[in-house]
């Protein structure tokens, strides 16, 4: 099965072209067209401006004009310009010493007071303007590439009257939900290289395995992908990031301990991977990424109706299909802990099959955690993909502690073999093993990995359904052919989907999803959200400055 073929033909061929046209009408984010011109001769804006500055010839004529500038203009000159003038004088002294002349003070003063016509721009004015643009551009570039993150304490993150709850452990981060009077946020906490207390004897005996700290460079990829996905419905809302430093709070320690007890009850053999907050020191530092509240993780959501099965599955498929199209996206870690559910509309009774099966539950989904993901900026020719190198830790593929571990092996097996054969754990013991296309690389674009996670989702939904068995059976019967092409264990002679977009096309062709739904009638809603985390001093100052205002109930309803 070749990775280069992303569209597979199956079912009734006569309908395929129509379905593809329908999917092509999906609402897209503004198209980011590449800049015109020869890409091989492009230079960044700073280089171009600098070249123009260096190309300006300052000769005797220019020097004379500079003497004619008003005193006000000279006062506003920047140091760089003065330095350039000095250098020019030195060059003139070397090349033409016989022309050296020192004007009398009276003449210099009168020359400086001579006004410069405003409607006749001079060469040195252009030089001054270009120099100013250079400095402004450099300052802007430095601000973008070297953002100054604010540093907070754990007391700032969660005040005594606020609520903090640990809800998950991601690829290399702990995930908490923070709620206060300004709203609710999800924060991902990544430990940076910094000191921490050594394990106690009891912690060593319990088998605690400390997650290694991560340099900021390790998570730049996830943050970049988050920016690319920000305008696509179904992906998490990014708020802010900052550094948190210092010892823990009582609330943080208590929720950490409660989470570990809960995990032990569910899986007695599970090891604790993240250090207890009791070991934090004054210099222990974390990078915290604040996100919008995505709702309840699928693993904690009770599935009770057939409409929930339809909507959760296809909301995820549509989100992935859009991300494939816009940034060549692969999630690569989309288990039940990284998919969140919210009830955003009232549940509606499902109509006749002719009306479709999608959009009745009133649910919305949010896809989380892009730590292992892959993406690419399509606005840049020959852009370097952003992808986490999964070969750095092969234990991801040899582990068998959770159901999703098999999907990791399926992904790696596909990159090695380009078919649906899943190699056993012991076959994943050599990093960068040679596959059909050479040494394995996670930079390549293989959207079939999204299909593997959709297959995992389908099996999870049907095996964890708690509602009426008749409804479950109805869903499985209606989607029997879908599962045939989705099933990673299907025979070699069975066609398969090559990407999430294929799955959406199939649903449209089958009449399960209407065109108006793809155009936005029942899709996830994008929202802008501000950070709810502020230092204590800032909160106090804001509260003192505000005057009590009676709020209009009508304006509240409009929100």
List keywords for this structure.
21 helices; about 550 residues; Transferase(Phosphotransferase), domain 1; Phosphorylase Kinase, domain 1; disordered N terminus; 3 domains; single chain
In short:
This protein is α+β, with helices and mostly antiparallel strands.
Q: How would you characterize the overall build of this protein?
A:
This protein is of the alpha+beta class and 559 residues long. The protein has three domains: 13-26 and 304-388 and 442-521, Transferase(Phosphotransferase) domain 1 (Transferase(Phosphotransferase), domain 1), CATH 1.10.510; 56-141, no CATH class; 151-293, 2-Layer Sandwich (Phosphorylase Kinase, domain 1), CATH 3.30.200. It has 21 helices and 13 strands. Strands 1-5-6-4-3-2 form a six-stranded mixed β-sheet. A hairpin with a 4-residue loop joins strand 2 (163-169) and strand 3.
Considering the protein shown, what is the CATH homologous superfamily of the largest domain? Transferase(Phosphotransferase) domain 1
Strand order of the largest sheet: 1-5-6-4-3-2
CATH class division of the largest domain: Mainly Alpha
Rg from Cα? 31 Å
The N- and C-terminal alpha carbons lie at a distance of 50 Å
Query: What fraction of the residues are assigned to beta strands by DSSP?
Result: 5-15%
Taking all residues together, what is the mean pLDDT? 77
Architecture of the largest domain in CATH? Orthogonal Bundle
Query: What is the global morphology?
Result: globular
Total individual domains: 3
């Amino acid at each position: 099965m070749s990775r280069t073929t992303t569209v597979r033909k199956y079912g009734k061929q006569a309908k395929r072209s129509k379905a593809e046209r329908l999917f092509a009408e999906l609402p897209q984010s503004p198209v980011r067209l590449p800049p015109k011109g020869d890409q091989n001769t492009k230079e960044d804006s700073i280089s171009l401006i600098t070249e123009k500055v260096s190309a300006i010839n300052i000769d005797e004529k220019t020097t004379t004009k500079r003497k004619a500038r008003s005193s006000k203009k000279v006062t506003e000159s920047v140091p760089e310009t003065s330095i350039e003038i000095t250098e020019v004088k030195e060059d003139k002294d070397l090349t033409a010493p016989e022309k050296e002349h020192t004007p009398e003070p009276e003449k210099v003063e009168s020359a400086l007071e001579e006004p410069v016509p405003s409607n006749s721009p001079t060469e040195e004015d252009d030089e001054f303007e270009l120099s100013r643009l250079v400095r402004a551009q450099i300052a802007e570039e430095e601000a973008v590439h070297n953002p100054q993150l604010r540093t907070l304490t754990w007391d700032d993150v969660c005040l005594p009257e606020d609520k903090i709850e640990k809800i998950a452990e991601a690829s290399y981060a702990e995930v908490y939900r923070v709620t206060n009077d300004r709203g609710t946020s999800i924060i991902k906490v990544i430990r940076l290289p910094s000191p921490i207390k050594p394990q106690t004897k009891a912690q060593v005996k319990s088998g605690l395995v400390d997650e290694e700290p991560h340099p900021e460079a390790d998570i730049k990829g996830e943050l970049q992908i988050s920016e690319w996905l920000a305008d696509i419905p179904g992906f998490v809302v990014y708020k802010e990031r900052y550094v948190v430093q210092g010892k823990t709070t009582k609330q943080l320690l208590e929720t950490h301990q409660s989470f570990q007890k809960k995990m032990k009850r569910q899986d007695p053999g599970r090891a604790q991977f993240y250090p207890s907050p009791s070991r934090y020191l004054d210099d222990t530092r974390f990078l915290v990424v604040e996100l919008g509240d995505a709702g309840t993780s699928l693993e904690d959501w009770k599935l009770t109706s057939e409409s929930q099965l339809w909507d959760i599955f296809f909301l995820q498929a549509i989100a992935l299909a859009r991300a494939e199209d816009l940034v060549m996206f692969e999630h690569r870690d989309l288990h039940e802990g990284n998919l969140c559910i919210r009830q955003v509309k009232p549940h509606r009774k499902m109509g006749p099959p002719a009306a479709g099966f999608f959009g009745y539950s009133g649910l919305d989904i949010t896809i989380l955690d892009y730590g292992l993901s892959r993406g690419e900026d399509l606005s840049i020719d020959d852009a370097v993909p952003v992808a986490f190198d999964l070969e750095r830790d092969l234990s991801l593929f040899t582990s068998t502690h959770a159901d999703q571990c098999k999907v990791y092996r399926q992904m790696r097996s596909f990159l090695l073999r380009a078919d649906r054969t899943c190699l056993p754990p012991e076959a994943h013991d050599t990093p960068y093993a040679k596959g059909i296309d050479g040494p394995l690389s996670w930079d390549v674009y293989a959207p079939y990995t999204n299909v593997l996670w959709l297959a995992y989702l389908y099996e999870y939904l049907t095996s964890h359904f708690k509602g009426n068995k008749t409804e479950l059976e109805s869903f499985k019967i209606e989607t029997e052919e879908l599962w045939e092409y989705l099933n990673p264990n299907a025979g070699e002679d069975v066609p398969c989907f090559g990407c999430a977009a294929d799955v959406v096309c199939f649903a449209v062709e089958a009449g399960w999803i209407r065109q108006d739904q793809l155009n936005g009638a029942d899709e996830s809603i994008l929202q802008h959200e501000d950070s709810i985390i502020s230092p204590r001093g800032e909160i106090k100052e804001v509260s003192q400055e505000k005057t009590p205002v009676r709020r209009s109930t009508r304006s509240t309803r409009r929100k």
